[in-house]
């Protein structure tokens, strides 16, 4: 049996070959990881993210450019707000953490801000782990600005960079998310808060992995600090958001992901996802990995337009949504659904088939009654004047 380190080196080499010669790996961030966890059955996204493929460039090369992502204006505004929040050694950020999460602790007047610079993501992750341990031993308040965390995803390491992590005087750790959407009268858009919570849950899982290597393990708080502009100003306001539900869901979904090695072993020899390849060859490579498309992918994945077109062309019921797919059981195509509804195929004892045939009968009765000018009870329908 090959040594684990040898297997790891072989996998990294194979993933580099899948990206293409001299193509740098795209970092898997928490937003992408949360989206991946939301669709754990999609082997296509798992292998592309695991290999560090730039899915935006890939979608463009496939002829289905993505409309997914943030505008440059939003990125610039977000960066400017984050810089303001972290000014003066993060004094305002720590004040918000103290007031919203730990009012009983001593005020953060003397806080440490360690240097986390190192060579490469792995080096930065190691430096972050050391800084966290030193902060716990020192006591007091510490602010880690853009730490690097490592999390195992389907057998491949993902390096994640939260906006900040606060170490409290009792040694506990809090994830900080800084967003540019406003808090209006103390509340924000629920959809945006939910997306931020799912992203923060990934960071909480990664922090828990770091804490587990220390003895005793520090407590990773499940209430994160969400910092946003107050009303329509550029002044920071904060809210404590409980992410225990999102953390549990994300952990369970990540555990369901097929390991990257298993997907790699099923690929044809010479498979490559480089956007520089001819369109036909690139399309064949992408189609060699099965996808699990759902309409929800449109707001979470750069390849959603490509996968939607393929799903519709194949008549797959997944294009109707996960709820419809779950109700239809073993009927996986629209043609099979229509055939079962017409009574041409399908087991009559199958609940899905029986429901379809009943719906088809009700529809036929309604259309017949409408054509004859009577309702379903046989009463004459008088049109409105």
Describe the protein:
With 385 residues, this protein is an alpha/beta fold. Helix content is 48%, strand content 11%. The protein has 15 helices and 8 strands. The strands form 2 sheets. A 6-stranded mixed beta sheet has the order 1-2-5-6-7-8, sandwiched between helices. Strands 3-4 form a two-stranded antiparallel sheet. Helix 7 (120-138) links the parallel strand 1 and strand 2. Helix 2 (30-38) packs across helix 8 (190-211) and helix 14 (334-341) crosses helix 15 (351-372). It is globular. The chain starts with a helix and ends in a 13-residue tail after the last helix. The mean pLDDT is 84.
Question: What is the topological layout?
Answer:
Elements: H1 4-19, H2 30-38, H3 43-50, H4 55-61, H5 72-85, H6 87-101, E1 111-112, H7 120-138, E2 141-145, E3 149-153, E4 156-160, E5 164-167, E6 173-178, H8 190-211, E7 223-229, E8 236-242, H9 244-256, H10 260-266, H11 279-287, H12 304-313, H13 322-327, H14 334-341, H15 351-372
Parallel strand pairs: 1-2, 6-7
Antiparallel strand pairs: 2-5, 3-4, 5-6, 7-8
Helix pairs in contact: 2-8, 2-9, 8-9, 14-15
């Amino acid at each position: 049996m090959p040594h684990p380190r040898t297997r790891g080196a072989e996998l990294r080499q194979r993933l580099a070959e899948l990206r293409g010669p001299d193509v740098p790996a795209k970092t898997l961030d928490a937003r992408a990881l949360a989206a991946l966890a939301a669709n754990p059955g999609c082997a296509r996204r798992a292998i592309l993210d695991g290999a560090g493929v730039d899915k935006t460039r890939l979608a463009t090369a496939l002829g289905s450019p993505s409309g997914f992502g943030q505008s440059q204006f939003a990125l610039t505004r977000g960066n400017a707000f984050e810089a303001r929040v972290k000014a003066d050694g993060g004094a305002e950020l720590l004040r918000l953490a103290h007031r919203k999460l730990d009012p009983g602790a001593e005020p953060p007047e003397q806080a440490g801000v360690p240097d986390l610079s190192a060579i490469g993501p792995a080096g930065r992750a190691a430096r972050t782990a050391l800084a966290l341990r030193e902060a716990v031993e020192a006591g007091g308040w510490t602010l880690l600005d853009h730490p690097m965390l490592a999390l195992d995803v389907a057998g491949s390491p993902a390096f994640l960079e939260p906006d900040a992590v606060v170490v409290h005087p009792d040694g506990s750790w809090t994830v900080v998310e800084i967003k540019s959407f406003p808090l209006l009268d103390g509340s924000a858009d629920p959809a945006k808060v939910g997306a931020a919570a799912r992203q923060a849950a990934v960071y909480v899982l990664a922090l828990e992995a770091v804490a587990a290597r220390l003895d005793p393990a520090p407590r990773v708080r499940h209430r994160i600090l969400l910092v946003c502009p107050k009303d329509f100003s550029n002044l920071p306001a904060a809210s404590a958001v409980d992410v225990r539900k999102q953390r549990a869901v994300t952990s369970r979904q990540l555990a369901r992901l097929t390991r990257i090695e298993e997907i790699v072993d099923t690929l044809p020899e010479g498979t490559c996802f480089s956007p520089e390849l001819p369109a036909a060859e690139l399309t064949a490579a992408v189609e060699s990995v099965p996808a699990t498309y759902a309409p929800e992918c449109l707001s979470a994945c750069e390849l959603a337009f490509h996968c939607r077109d393929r799903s519709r062309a194949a008549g797959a019921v997944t294009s109707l949504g996960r709820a419809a797919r779950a109700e239809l059981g073993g009927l996986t195509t629209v043609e099979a659904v229509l055939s079962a509804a017409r009574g041409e195929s399908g087991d009559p004892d199958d609940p899905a088939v029986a429901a379809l045939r009943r719906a088809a009968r009700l529809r036929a009765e309604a259309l017949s009654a409408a054509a004859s000018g009577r309702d379903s009870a046989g009463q004459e329908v008088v049109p409105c004047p």
